[in-house]
Fold this sequence. Notes:
Layout: H1 12-40, H2 47-70, E1 75-90, E2 95-102, E3 107-117, E4 128-133, E5 139-146, E6 148-154, E7 159-166, E8 173-187, H3 191-224
Antiparallel strand pairs: 1-8, 2-7, 3-6, 3-8, 4-5, 4-7
Helix pairs in contact: 1-3, 2-3
Amino acid sequence: MNAVEVAPPESWWLSFLPLIVVGAVILGLIFLIVFGMLISRRVTITVRTGGAVALTLASILLLSGLWCMFLSPLMTYSETKDSFYSPVSIDGLGNWSYSLSAHEEDTLGGSVDGVRAYDLPNGSGKTFNLRIYDPDNSVVWSETNITYRYFSVKALKSGVYKVEVQNPNQQPIECYIQITISEKVTYRPLEPLGQWLSLVSLPTFGFGMWASGVFAIMQKKEMKEPD
């Protein structure tokens, strides 16, 4: 079996960098809008006003983050769970098989190419028969006397699936066989942005609560002071 080379994963901050930039732009716009509204109304920026603005901004950030994490649109992609890539020699009138475990809704795909027939001129006679069996040993795909075939079978039940290649010729043949098991993975592209917005909302909430507490303490002191 040939080893499959896997590209090294990218650093997490490189994949999240566009979302972080977008989030920073959104925060900047929200701040400018709120600040502009306060200036246009000639509101004096006090501890009380700062606390109210901070709590409002934190609420917007938290709600936006929760929407991104739990309600934003879903996307899907195929992820390979198991694979086999290799040339295989099959004796005359012999067969070759390979078994893979699959879950319901997984896709069993691949191809078989009869690349060479031994002891025959011009590569003639490199035909083969292809059968795929489900976990109940029932045939779910069958092709006979072919020289190349691409196949794709959706698993209707979980279990072990078997790919079998038969050589109907008296002479041995060589086939190049590729088999993969892939599954559909769903994810929310905006979930990292939602996590970042929710995280940013925490210190903003803290500042708003601190400012509100300071204002309440100042009010109590003013009420206790004699006229």
